[in-house]
Amino acid sequence: MSREYETVIGLEVHVELATKTKIFCGCKTDFGGAPNTHTCPICTGMPGALPILNKKVVEYAMAVGLATNCKITKHSKFDRKNYFYPDNPQNYQISQLYLPICRDGKVEIEVNGTKKSIGIHEIHMEEDAGKLVHDDWEDVSIVDYNRSGVPLIEIVSEPDMRSSDEVIAYLEKLRQTIQYLGASDCKLNEGSMRADVNISVRKVGQKNFGTRTEMKNLNSFKAISHAIEGETKRQIEIIEANKEVVQETRRWDDNKESSKSMRSKEDAKDYRYFPDPDLPPIYISDEWIEKVRKSQPELREEKLERYKKEFDISEYDATLITESKHLADLFEQTSDICKKPKKVANFILGELLRLLKEKEMDDSEIDFSVEHFAKLIELFDSGVINSTVSKQVFGEIFLNDVDPEKYIKEKNLMVVDDNGTLERIIDEVLEANPKSVADYKEGKKKAIGFLVGQTMKAMSGKAEPSKVNQILTKKLQ
Amino acid sequence: MISIEKMTAIEISKNIKNKKISTVEVLDETIKQIKEKDEKIKGFITVAEEEARKQASLIQDKIEKGELLGPLAGVPIAIKDNIDTKNIKTTCASKILYNFVPTFDATVVKNLKDAGAIIIGKTNMDEFAMGSTSETSAFEVTKNPWDLTKVPGGSSGGTCAVVASGQVSCGLGSDTGGSIRQPSSYCGVTGIKPTYGTVSRFGLIAYGSSLDQIGPVAKNVEDCATILETISSYDRFDSTSMRRDKYNFISALKQDVKGMKIGIPKEYLEKGIDDEVKEAVLKAAQIMKEKGAIVEEFSLDLVDYAIPAYYIIACAEASSNLARFDGVKYGYRTKEYEGLHEMYKKSRSEGFGDEVKRRIMLGSFVLSSGYYDAYYLKALKVKRLIKQAYDEAFEKYDLILGPVAPTTAPKIGESLKDPLKMYLSDIYTISVNLAGLPAISLPCALDKNKMPIGVQFIANCFEENKMIAAGHALEKELSENFVPNFSLV
């Protein structure tokens, strides 16, 4: 990017809240399910049906607001956003325009060691729309209202970000905070967290903002970074060519790595917002705010401090583990059982992260039992299995949640502890590899590695490599 | 068999309880009445004979077992066609809902069924309750039972006409700007618009959500109070529903009016009011004085602003409420179209009538950016000021007495030519809805053409008991027989 320009970025982040039921009716919010099975007259907009506010939605919105240092609006209201589209059964979305539940917040981010505060303009509550599927074969569109009425909050930031790194750090921070609160699982791939990015560029030192565009359809952090870089470049090119950036909404195409105009400001819709007469204003008392504040779970910063005090692990490890609520929960629960936090941390940060990456999984998808994990740590720690075998067994726990004790027995993976067997095997290996023995004796000390390997192979991995090494060294003297 | 044509709801249920007539016989007789009379009156859109028969035998059983003792057990009741009835077509008198069958009962219908009332059918109305004559119905024009060349009023004209013509003893209407009280006045029956939030709106197909209330229509105050007590309830399915301490509407009938302070807004009697209507109000005032009430005139400002404020608020809400009727999910869809937008446009253009379109356009306009502050917010301000003016009045008075409509029922076809004139006829009823107040309309006199004239008592919020007491006291003193000549029908 040219050094003459800076990018100004603001985000609108939609988060699906983890309530059991929808925002205005008692239908389930579960992802998936056969089309139109989680529906009722209310979330399908039947004539005469009326919305009833789910109190839990208000509490989650307040919790997120409090965790992001927002002011809670004591008299909050719902408004109708009017537009025609078949995924929206009433042809209006119940949202908040005039009196959103939270305002004026901020979160701290850190990029390459530099701390920065990102302002939050507001957080408002609204309902999600259904899903339209176009059937090309029959040439019809089909609508599924399972998602219609699933509660959302929209977190609108101030235009405080200047790079895609800052944007990703901000999103990670929001995701971490919201996951810690238990207010949402924040999965970008399932759409439970979605971000629209507002971008403008201006000359460094210029006071006024440039004309902004809004980028939609960003389904991963990667897409977000690429879109920001692409759009910055596109806008600079327009300005360099002495043309003007058009205020518009653009759609990102992840396959083509480019964006296309959806609509410009001229044909921007007039949503004719007005207060929803079916929903009385929400009054939030100081007592209610305090109640939510008190029931706020331990957030990341507090957890990190506690880990440093309570557990015998490095600050670096504690930082990495507490980055994710899922990992922190796993760490704590497992350590509680086996009382070996250091080893638990090593497994999580080593094998577990490697496997997640390999399988392209999110840590929220981890679903093995902590009892199995703790037992594995104990087996490894007491020397029943060696390090190589422990990794292999962990892989099995990760994938199939096997009971490590049974699995090890079935597969006969215990370390062979009787010296007689080991010495006999080593003698055989030495005899079979005279060249390596000779090399070693001539001073090529590395040759011992090969011999250890051969021994381990002959032992089917069930020996302790350090012990093999020790015996070999003695015998080769 | 005894004739039920002139009976009230309470008389019917008493006769059933005393085994003079059975629920099934009442139903047979009601269906006979409907067959005889409704060909001319055209008050019903749907007669739900089959559903009613199923209910009737079940209810007869329960009455015999002593499980149903209430004053509406076994009584057939007519429901305005904008109130959801499970398995019975509910059209709002609109082509766009011509085939719509709800999957659930409105809370009021559920309450009535629990009390043993029998849903006999769905009545005609102005399309989506928009109109004052019931002529904007997509299906039929209801006739006034007192004079078949005249309108029954609206929008609950169907309910009022079928009660007035003795087809049923009672029914439900809805009142957004006078839609129960004005047709009650034109048809010579009694109707109540309750305090906003008293009767659940769940299952009422919304017109102006912040103004709509369902209420009873019957032949006298006692029936109205009884039905109102039955349908009123706190309903968690309606977030605007109020939890009231008591629903003491029936006991209010025994309340004395002696010493009650009643105010008459002098602006109501000044201009635009028919002389005979004015006389009827003064006659009611005289009777109330004789009963020991203190009656005086006072000034109620802001009357002039009520109509524009009402049309802005009601139409704004309607433009959004009616957006869901789009041909996608239920109801009417145009036959030929290319693409989504043409489908929307044609379905709605063909499915809605002129008056509904007029109000959707007006409502969309006042909510548009740039006009929202100038119209919508200003209208809300007027609404608050009107409420304040009433608050002040109710510091001095227990009740306000006034006309319901400036004239008696106009001829069919007269009002549609001039919608603005039709809007002005709501002048005495509209401000009650804007302030969320309860009011009762009851017949008080007949004009020289033998057409009924109604008067209304308006009470402060949650004080229905006072207006019920006053209405009951007044009706007992009236010598007129407010029953049309059935031979005309």
UniProtKB/TrEMBL annotation, chain A:
Keywords: ATP-binding, Ligase, Nucleotide-binding, Protein biosynthesis, Transferase. Pfam families: GatB_N, GatB_Yqey. The gene is gatB. Residues 329-476 form the Asn/Gln amidotransferase domain. SUPFAM superfamilies: GatB/YqeY motif, Glutamine synthetase/guanido kinase. InterPro entries: Asn/Gln-tRNA_amidoTrfase_suB/E (IPR017959), Asn/Gln-tRNA_Trfase_suB/E_cat (IPR006075), Asn/Gln_amidotransferase (IPR018027), Asn/Gln_tRNA_amidoTrase-B-like (IPR003789), GatB (IPR004413), GatB_C_1 (IPR042114), GatB_Yqey_C_2 (IPR023168), Gln-tRNA_amidoTrfase_suB_CS (IPR017958). The keyword Nucleotide-binding applies. It catalyses: L-aspartyl-tRNA(Asn) + L-glutamine + ATP + H2O = L-asparaginyl-tRNA(Asn) + L-glutamate + ADP + phosphate + 2 H(+); L-glutamyl-tRNA(Gln) + L-glutamine + ATP + H2O = L-glutaminyl-tRNA(Gln) + L-glutamate + ADP + phosphate + H(+). Heterotrimer of A, B and C subunits. It comes from Lachnobacterium bovis. One of its GO terms (biological process) is glutaminyl-tRNAGln biosynthesis via transamidation. This is Aspartyl/glutamyl-tRNA(Asn/Gln) amidotransferase subunit B. PANTHER family: GLUTAMYL-TRNA GLN AMIDOTRANSFERASE SUBUNIT B MITOCHONDRIAL AND PROKARYOTIC PET112-RELATED, GLUTAMYL-TRNA(GLN) AMIDOTRANSFERASE SUBUNIT B, MITOCHONDRIAL. It comes from the Bacteria. Allows the formation of correctly charged Asn-tRNA(Asn) or Gln-tRNA(Gln) through the transamidation of misacylated Asp-tRNA(Asn) or Glu-tRNA(Gln) in organisms which lack either or both of asparaginyl-tRNA or glutaminyl-tRNA synthetases. The reaction takes place in the presence of glutamine and ATP through an activated phospho-Asp-tRNA(Asn) or phospho-Glu-tRNA(Gln). GO terms for molecular function: asparaginyl-tRNA synthase (glutamine-hydrolyzing) activity; ATP binding; glutaminyl-tRNA synthase (glutamine-hydrolyzing) activity; transferase activity. Its EC number is 6.3.5.-. Gene3D superfamilies: 1.10.10.410, GatB domain, N-terminal subdomain (1.10.150.380). Belongs to the GatB/GatE family. GatB subfamily.
Automatic annotation (TrEMBL), chain B:
Keywords: ATP-binding, Ligase, Nucleotide-binding, Protein biosynthesis, Transferase. Its EC number is 6.3.5.7. It catalyses: L-glutamyl-tRNA(Gln) + L-glutamine + ATP + H2O = L-glutaminyl-tRNA(Gln) + L-glutamate + ADP + phosphate + H(+). One of its GO terms (cellular component) is glutamyl-tRNA(Gln) amidotransferase complex. The active site is at K80 (charge relay system), S155 (charge relay system), S179 (acyl-ester intermediate). InterPro entries: Amidase, Amidase_dom, AS_sf, GatA. Pfam families: Amidase (PF01425). GO terms for molecular function: ATP binding; glutaminyl-tRNA synthase (glutamine-hydrolyzing) activity; transferase activity. Allows the formation of correctly charged Gln-tRNA(Gln) through the transamidation of misacylated Glu-tRNA(Gln) in organisms which lack glutaminyl-tRNA synthetase. The reaction takes place in the presence of glutamine and ATP through an activated gamma-phospho-Glu-tRNA(Gln). Belongs to the amidase family. GatA subfamily. This is Glutamyl-tRNA(Gln) amidotransferase subunit A. It comes from Lachnobacterium bovis.
